[in-house]
Automatic annotation (TrEMBL), chain A:
Localization per Swiss-Prot or TrEMBL: Cell membrane
Transmembrane segments: 21-46, 79-101, 113-133, 162-187, 208-233, 272-292
ABC transmembrane type-1 domain mapped to chain residues: 76-291
InterPro entries (alphabetical): ABC_transporter_permease (IPR051393), MetI-like (IPR000515), MetI-like_sf (IPR035906)
GO process annotations (BP): transmembrane transport
Protein known as: Sugar ABC transporter permease
Family annotation (SUPFAM superfamilies): MetI-like
Family: Belongs to the binding-protein-dependent transport system permease family.
Pfam family, one: BPD_transp_1
Cross-referenced PROSITE patterns: ABC_TM1 (PS50928)
Length: 300, 411
């Protein structure tokens, strides 16, 4: 601190030199691997690379073919359905569970563990478990039938129209525990006095939650939203384990399309074009949000 | 003490490579994992081990679709195996062009491969710019209909002799609680089935024009419309299969839960393993009993370029042991496929294999789809066919339109 009394400010570049040097590897990783890899992918998406990357440009041909492919359209629709519903349900169910847990119930630790436990399983295991549960031969359907309802039908994984909901169920089972924990932490962060004040004013409990607590939990909601959203875009392993995209192509998702065309079809260009579209979709969601979240605050 | 232990360890690691120097380990990757296939691979390993080297088995489960990306990424990623299976055709085309595969022209000349391998198209698809890059191992054909005699007995109808009779018998099978046609959920199965229908219903010429010349006009024509109509029948007959793997579907035929299956002759290995007899327990109809034509698909071994001299030498030993007459017989009998050598004696072959050999000898063959279309086109067809078979709301006409679109852009 004494050094600062010297005339002339030290160069900004050399402030905290140690920590800057320490972060060079991470910066390099970010720039070379993430940014470099992204740019490389985008550039090669304009080529007709097959099994091996080749720089022979074909313009927008890969993109034209991509948007002409029924399978890609199906996978986009699936992602939209799955994304919206998974966002709504995991936030609602997660918050409800957390609110219930917050009522000073007994055995809270036990319940918390039970709800969080599925999150410890990988998507592959979750997918296999739910594939068995939803299998008409020995899952829910056969159990209900053996109880007497012989015409009961519940086979979401074998029905093209509703297969994506079968995947949604498994994803919610796996993911809501984490959302609940995050929400619970948020709820615990609310000052007791606010509850007391609300009670003094005679505000019913549901109104307190809806109009006072939830707006106060904004940062927690934003964090949760980012975690859920990133999980939605990269969904792949759950689908592979549960249906491998079937029946037919009814439960396909963009990440699976990318993988299949890059490695099975030996058509890197097409895979790159599809992954660039995924990046674009993420950017369209993230950029305005980041602008509002960070850009806005600096001004205010 | 510690230092001594470390020294001993170091000495051990140095000593190991010396000990193994004379018997070279070669890792061989393939996707033969079903019961009949594994038994056949064991024959290859036995033959290669007899040359004084050691076969290190690198089986990758989950059929070719899963295995090929793993193999390719190992080769392009700089960690090549010593030898690997691919199907005859264009699957390894780019790897060869990129110079990642070993050239076997000299060995082929010395052993006269061009004289013993038949049909010649097999060696041709190994050849790139006049050099030979792979060893054909066997001939598999897709064009077989396997029927369970038990299932038809139970349904009270005669075992059909061709596709039309089979379609006509379907309602009776359904009534008896039997799935008429087992089609596994994996996309390549319905796609293969479709190509079989093209050869059987459409005929050799139509097949060659569509798959070979990528003639969009023929693909849109009335002959192909008939094929799509037949595929629509097959789709209705396959309802209720609910299995994924081809051998599970074959198993449904073996146990009489399904009336039949359209599958390549590799299914034969499963029947054999289950102790079933051709003609008694099951019936095979090449070309669906309509057009007795088979395709000459199958497997070939490719050898990535290796730096290790000893291993490169062992690669040559493996290559010639694969084409050895004895290996060809032992392997193909277990696998249910036909040998690539015309000069070997297959007296032990069963009825179905003999039918196949006869057709082959007559020259009633077509080039396989793997040799005609790229993996890219194959994948697009798979997307179309798997959707068509899973979703009955797509009509045959719609499917044909998309089929035409794929071929009008195929390379």
């Amino acid at each position: 601190m004494a050094a600062h009394t010297q005339p002339g400010r030290p160069n900004q570049l050399f402030r905290n030199l140690n920590s800057k040097i320490a972060s060079i590897p991470m910066m390099l990783t970010a720039v070379v691997i993430f940014l470099g890899g992204t740019i490389w992918t985008v550039v090669y998406s304009f080529t007709n690379s097959k099994l091996l990357p080749r720089l022979s440009f074909v313009g927008l041909e890969q993109y034209e073919r991509l948007w002409d492919t029924p399978r890609w359209i199906v996978s986009i629709q699936n992602l939209a359905t799955y994304g919206c519903l998974s966002l709504i349900f995991s936030l609602t169910i997660g918050f409800l569970l957390a609110a219930l847990m917050d009522q000073k119930i007994r055995f809270e630790n036990t319940f918390r563990t039970i709800f969080l436990y599925p999150f410890a399983l990988s998507f592959i295991v979750t997918g296999l478990v739910w594939q068995w549960i939803l299998n008409p031969e020995f899952g829910v359907q056969s159990v209900v039938r053996s109880l007497g309802w012989t015409s009961f039908t519940f086979d979401p994984l074998y029905n093209s129209d509703i297969v994506i909901y079968g995947i949604l169920i498994a994803a919610l089972w796996q993911g809501t525990g984490l959302v609940m924990c995050l929400m619970l932490a948020g709820l615990r962060g609310i000052d007791e006095d606010i509850w007391k004040a609300a009670r003094v004013d005679g505000i019913p409990m549901w109104k307190t939650y809806l109009f006072i607590i939830i707006p106060m939990m904004r940062p927690v909601f934003v964090t949760t939203l980012v975690i859920i959203a990133s999980g939605i875009v990269r969904i792949y392993d759950l689908v592979v384990a549960q249906t491998s995209g079937g029946p037919g192509i009814a439960s396909d998702v963009p990440a699976k399309y990318v993988y299949d065309y890059m490695f099975f079809a030996q058509n890197l260009g097409q895979g790159f074009a599809a992954s660039t579209m995924m990046l674009l979709a993420v950017a369209i969601i993230i950029v305005p949000w980041a602008y509002l979240e960070f850009g806005g605050r600096k001004r205010g | 003490m510690n230092i001594r232990a470390i020294a001993a360890l170091l000495a051990a690691t140095v000593a190991l490579p010396f000990g193994a120097a004379h018997a070279t380990d070669l890792e061989v990757t393939h996707w033969w994992t079903s019961g009949g296939e594994a038994a056949a691979v064991a024959e290859l390993a036995k033959a290669f081990n007899a040359t004084g080297n050691k076969w290190v088995d690198g089986a990758i489960a989950g059929s070719g679709g899963t295995a090929r990306p793993i193999m390719i990424s190992r080769i392009t990623g700089g960690d090549p195996m010593a030898a690997t299976q691919f199907n005859h055709g264009r699957q390894a085309e780019e790897l060869v062009q990129a110079g990642l595969m070993r050239d076997f022209t000299d060995l082929a000349k010395k052993e006269g491969w061009d004289k013993i391998v038949r049909p010649a198209s097999l060696l041709k698809s190994c050849t790139f710019e006049g050099k030979i890059y792979c060893v054909p191992l066997n001939i598999h054909s897709w064009q077989w209909l396997w029927l369970s005699n038990d299932a038809f007995k139970k349904a009270g109808v005669a075992v059909p002799k061709n596709w039309d009779e089979y379609v006509a018998a379907a309602p009776a099978l359904e009534k008896a609680g039997i799935v008429p046609l087992a089609v596994g959920g994996q996309a390549w199965q319905s796609t293969g089935l479709f190509s079989v229908l093209t050869v059987a219903i459409g005929g050799k010429e139509i097949y060659q024009k569509v798959y070979g010349d990528k003639d969009a006009k023929v693909a849109a024509g009335p002959e192909m419309a008939k094929v799509f109509k037949a595929a629509d029948d097959a789709r209705k007959m396959s309802k209720g299969t609910n299995v994924q793997d081809w051998n599970q579907a074959t198993n449904m035929v073996i146990t009489g839960k399904a009336g039949g299956q359209i599958m390549g002759d590799w299914a034969q290995g499963e029947f054999q393993l289950a102790g079933k007899k051709a003609g008694v327990d099951y019936t095979c109809l090449p070309g669906l009993g309509v057009n007795e034509i088979i395709s000459t698909a199958g497997d070939a071994f490719y050898f990535p370029v290796l730096k290790d001299a000893a291993k490169s030498k062992a690669q040559e030993a493996l290559a010639s042991s694969l084409l050895d007459a004895k290996t060809q017989v032992a392997f193909n009998l277990k696998k249910g496929s036909l040998p690539v050598r015309g000069d070997v004696d297959l007296a032990a072959a069963n009825d179905c294999m003999k039918k196949g050999l006869e057709i082959l000898a007559k020259g009633n063959v077509v080039t396989s789809t793997d040799q005609l279309i790229t993996q890219d086109t194959q994948k697009q067809l798979e997307d179309l066919m798997s959707q068509f078979f899973a979703n009955t709301s797509i009509t045959a006409e719609e499917a044909q339109k998309r089929f035409v679109a794929i071929f009008s852009k195929a390379g």
